[in-house]
Amino acid sequence: MNAIASSAPSVNATNGPLEFLSFTLGKEEYGISIQKVQELRGYDTVTRIANTPEFVKGVVNLRGIIVPIVDMRIKFSLGSPTYDQFTVVVILNVAGRVVGMVVDSVSDVITLTPEEIRPAPDMNSAMASDYLVGLGTIGERMLILIDIDKLMSSAEMGLADPSLA
């Protein structure tokens, strides 16, 4: 059984609606559980750390906590990132660790009922098979729902302890 098949029912097993923070990367719209979001910040200069993967932009000091900053456009190979007044850093609390995620822009908080969340198709991509919860559908709008705990706790990211996810 693939990861989508095993993770999608757990979302649909929830009785009530779920809230997702929607954000854009390129032309696509994504969503993560609002419960993981600590705060939203504008993009600011980061301190680069040597020998880190390209998608780890560096770290920032957030009120005394050193926070790694991950550029999701680079992580998902969605072209060269541009940083402007719309660029947002979503500060997450994932697996007991504070992590920043750079996205092109943040849209809004969307409430989805279990019926509005469909299993993601199996497309043999690393993201689809391991980190997708499903697809949220609101009319003609589609939201790619990411399991941010699994993504940030994955061995390739190395940012959070997977045993705490």
Automatic annotation (TrEMBL):
InterPro entries: CheW, CheW-like_dom_sf, CheW-lke_dom. Residues 17-157 form the CheW-like domain. Keywords: Cytoplasm. It is found in: Cytoplasm. It comes from the Bacteria. Gene3D superfamilies: CheA-289, Domain 4, SH3 Domains. Its main location: cytoplasm. It holds the Pfam family CheW. This is Chemotaxis protein CheW. It comes from Herminiimonas aquatilis.
